């Protein structure tokens, strides 16, 4: 488990490209037959990537959590960004098609990830936050969540946003999670750019061709910076940072939040004309 410590706005202007990437970009979360994790001290979220190529892999407790089991004090949402696979929670098998979502509540003991025999391994992305109570484990099939059509083709940001874990959907303590897919011809993923001081957010980009990239905007609205992001890489966005981007090819992304509230529309927009 890698540790990423919290940062403040005054630190960003003096950061080099390498500094920005080291603090905010998670480049290697997925590796064959491994379970990798990053602990962000922004709202104490944990990002996990599991890629079971040749056999099942098990979610460890990780020594940094100082807990007997991963879910002793935590909850998590999981989205499959690879081929079909299964997540087994305390003996119950849940089959996740690509882009399906599984919520696991506090108190789960044994979690194992496996791929089907389809030739394309599953790639499970887990977003976890501390939990104060227990909600039941729930599987949501692709496109079975709350679907919102957003944007406009004239501004190249027509997109389908599917909410899985949210205040009017799958219940959780604080995790909010879903998937956004850009329509053909649209490349901007979030317009207008916005902040929400009450929640941090993480974008995991997926579905990008190997030679394509997303240029992700971050930083304070009046002093933005950018990160160049490849397929299956994640960007940690502190509450004070905008999060928006444009790609060179079609893509999707998992968005996940944790913090003070679960109100999806509780955000502070920053129109393009106001950005610097």
Automatic annotation (TrEMBL):
One of its GO terms (biological process) is D-glucuronate catabolic process. It is an enzyme of class 5 (isomerase). Its cofactor is Zn(2+). Gene3D superfamilies: Jelly Rolls (2.60.120.10), pectin degrading enzyme 5-keto 4- deoxyuronate isomerase, domain 1 (2.60.120.520). Transmembrane segments: none annotated. Zn(2+) binds at residues 194, 196, 201, 243. Pathway: Glycan metabolism; pectin degradation; 2-dehydro-3-deoxy-D-gluconate from pectin: step 4/5. It comes from the Bacteria. Pfam families: KduI. It catalyses: 5-dehydro-4-deoxy-D-glucuronate = 3-deoxy-D-glycero-2,5-hexodiulosonate. The keyword Zinc applies. CDD domains: cupin_KduI_C, cupin_KduI_N. Binds 1 zinc ion per subunit. Keywords: Isomerase, Metal-binding, Zinc. Its EC number is 5.3.1.17. InterPro entries: KduI (IPR007045), KduI/IolB_isomerase (IPR021120), KduI_N (IPR027449), RmlC-like_jellyroll (IPR014710), RmlC_Cupin_sf (IPR011051). GO terms for molecular function: 4-deoxy-L-threo-5-hexosulose-uronate ketol-isomerase activity; zinc ion binding. Belongs to the KduI family. PANTHER family: 4-DEOXY-L-THREO-5-HEXOSULOSE-URONATE KETOL-ISOMERASE (PTHR38461). Catalyzes the isomerization of 5-dehydro-4-deoxy-D-glucuronate to 3-deoxy-D-glycero-2,5-hexodiulosonate. This is 4-deoxy-L-threo-5-hexosulose-uronate ketol-isomerase.
């Amino acid at each position: 488990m890698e540790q990423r410590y919290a940062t403040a706005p005054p630190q960003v202007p003096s950061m080099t490209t390498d500094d920005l990437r080291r603090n905010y970009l998670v480049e290697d979360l997925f590796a064959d037959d491994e379970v990798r994790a990053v602990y962000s001290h922004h709202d104490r979220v944990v990002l996990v990537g599991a890629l079971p190529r040749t056999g099942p892999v098990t979610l460890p407790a990780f020594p940094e959590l100082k807990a007997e089991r991963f879910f002793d004090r935590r909850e998590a949402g999981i989205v499959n960004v690879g081929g079909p696979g299964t997540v087994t929670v305390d003996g119950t098998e849940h089959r996740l098609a690509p882009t399906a979502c599984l919520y696991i509540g506090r108190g789960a003991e044994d979690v194992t990830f496996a791929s089907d025999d389809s030739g394309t391994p599953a790639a499970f992305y887990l977003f976890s936050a501390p939990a104060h109570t227990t909600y039941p484990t729930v599987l949501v099939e692709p496109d079975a969540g709350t679907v919102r059509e957003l944007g406009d083709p004239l501004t190249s940001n027509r997109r389908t946003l599917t909410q899985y874990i949210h205040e009017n959907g799958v219940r959780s303590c604080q995790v909010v999670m879903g998937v956004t897919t850009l329509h053909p011809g649209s490349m901007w993923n979030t317009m207008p750019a916005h902040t929400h001081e009450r929640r941090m957010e993480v974008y995991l980009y997926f579905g990008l061709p190997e030679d394509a990239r997303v240029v992700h905007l971050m930083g304070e609205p009046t002093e933005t910076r950018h990160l160049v992001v490849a397929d299956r890489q994640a960007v940690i966005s502190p509450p004070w940072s905008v999060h928006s981007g444009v790609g060179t090819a079609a893509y999707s992304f998992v968005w996940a939040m944790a913090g003070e509230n679960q109100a999806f529309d509780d955000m502070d927009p920053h129109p393009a004309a106001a950005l610097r």
